Amino acid sequence: MEEVEKVKAEAVQMIGMFQVLPRLVVFDLDYTLWPFYCECRSKHDTPSLFPHSRGILSALKDEGIDAAIASKSPTPDIATTYLDKLKITSMFVAQEIFYSSTHKTEHFQKIHSKTGVPYNSMLFFDDDNNNMKPVSNLGVTSILVRNGLNLGVFREGLTRFSQNWDASKNKQKRRK
Ligand SMILES: [Mg+2]
């Protein structure tokens, strides 16, 4: 089996192990889906993804879980050119790629209003620690990516998402 197919099969299996799943998984671009800052590169370069990114994205698609992008890249034209070159543009239901002084809360407000998905049904992967707290405060399960998206951090995300979900449901129960 090809590497992408192997990763995809493993990701599909992983998704099947969880009873509670996010409705939308949001990804940063630079150093999360791909191993570079696109502002340091030219549109004419040939981009590549981290080795597990494509398999994980296509597992989400197969399992009917939507994906979106939240990127603060100052060069959205390069980012979108690369998404096209990598043929993954159609995998995202929302693409918010713009520079902002906020820690991506503005990106998430836009994603929320475009998709209608509640924040507590979203899972977010990003390599920038500064974005973790502000986005978590919205109710999004936010996972710090240290070496690019891979199956290990993907599993951690699904696990944390279902723990957060259970914790919030228990809280509601106690209030009744
Ligand atoms: Mg990044």
TrEMBL record:
Transmembrane helix listed as a keyword: no
InterPro entries documented for this protein: HAD-like_sf, HAD_sf, HAD_SF_ppase_IIIC, MDP-1_euk, MDP_1_eu_arc
UniProt xrefs under SUPFAM superfamilies: HAD-like
The keyword Hydrolase appears for this protein: yes
Pfam families registered for this protein in UniProt: Acid_PPase (PF12689)
Keywords assigned by UniProt, alphabetized: Hydrolase
GO MF entries: acid phosphatase activity
Protein name: Magnesium-dependent phosphatase-like protein
Source organism of the structure: Medicago truncatula
Gene name, Swiss-Prot/TrEMBL: 11406827
